[in-house]
Description:
The protein has five helices and 32 strands. It has helices at 100-109, 115-118, 171-181, 250-253, 303-307; strands at residues 5-8, 17-22, 27-31, 37-40, 43-46, 48-56, 59-66, 69-74, 83-87, 90-97, 127-130, 151-154, 161-165, 187-196, 199-206, 209-216, 227-231, 235-239, 245-249, 266-268, 272-274, 280-281, 284-291, 294-301, 315-318, 320-322, 330-335, 354-359, 363-371, 388-394, 403-410, 427-437. A hairpin with a 5-residue loop joins strand 21 and strand 22 (280-281). By secondary structure, the protein is mostly beta strands.
Amino acid sequence: MNNKILREVPEKRERYTKHFQMNEKGMAAAVYSVPIHYEEDGTWKEIDNRLESAVKDGKSVYQNRASQVHVSFAEQAGDEALVSVERAGRCLSWRLETEPSVSVQAAAQQTDGMGAEAGALKPAGRFRVLTEPEFPKFPEELKKEAKEQPAEVSDGAESGEQIQLHAGTTQEDETQISEMMCVPHLASEGMYEDILPDVDLHYTIEGERIKENIRLKTREAAGLPLKFHFTHAGMVMKKEADGSLALYDTEEAGVRKTDENCEPVYTLAKPYMYDQNGEISQAAEFGLETEGGESFVSMILDAAWLQDEQRAYPVVIDPRTETSKSSANIEDTYIFPGTTNCDDAESAYAFGSFLVGKATGNGNNRALLRFKNLPDIGKGSILYAATMYIWQYEYSSYGVAKIPLMAYEITGNWAEKTARWKNQPPTDGKVLDYKEVS
């Protein structure tokens, strides 16, 4: 079959979906995990998160080009707002608080040691747009190779071997289709290097989500206080039961305890930590002090884990900021009975990938996925094929050349943050499709 994309059909765009005219069998709809379009004057336009230099309120900044979520990064750390996010008239901004002694230490660390004449002070924490990732984003990318490692896959467009479930086209066709379905400027990255001594702040914008990585490059850096000053006029920041932080419109905040449908404007997921070897700790949380339209958020980290002699630096602290709890179109997590690594289940949904197969630490791993917004294909349309793309990171054969990756329909309800082996949802037991992986 020679099945190729002829063109996109822009008038059929949706927030998470693109529609394409195929040379055979009509149309194809591609569903993405994050928003790829924003609406302007009744037209869906492609999000462009490329960062470009600009001047905002008299300050030099880098800001994304085109989205309903406007993000800007101060060119120089020390400005009143380090990062600001604005959506639908609601602005959230923050900066990293520094003790005077720490600021002096950072300045001293950045002199070139050539004396007063040549010792010009390098700008501390200047923002730099990244063209390539400077360090791995997820702990699974750091895991040392082990004899007993399960197959590991991601729902994002990461590097690795592409796996197709229910594929009915040739590899050449799939390459052309993947290229045509790519959203070229959906994500961008930047970094404040050495904003504190041996501490980097790394940011990724993808769709309408902002991901922050705090990188502690040395054991000494792990002892520095990390405290952020948030400004959020017209919103109140509250700590949720799962350890995340949520910002609600002031007029809605008073009813949120009785109205479960009250949607936060922004959320900050509970952080976790991982080291250079991919070892993970859940012993990280937010400390919150709030007053009016301002809040102070401290990172409360397990000092014993950070100072353990087995700890491999750098260590990354991984929270993320979202425009709402519903900004992700694909929910995913993985579940396992657990032996030595059962604590990992507390934030498995946040790792950016999932495990399937068998591992010594976890036992059997099962992945749960849910597509929240399926495309509008129109009444009377005939659905003749569906393909799900996932990307494989690692695989260990356990003595067999291949394992079958099988898809089942889940027939019960589940929640991304609370799904565990003991409360896993049922399936009807019928294999919808499978793919052998190696």
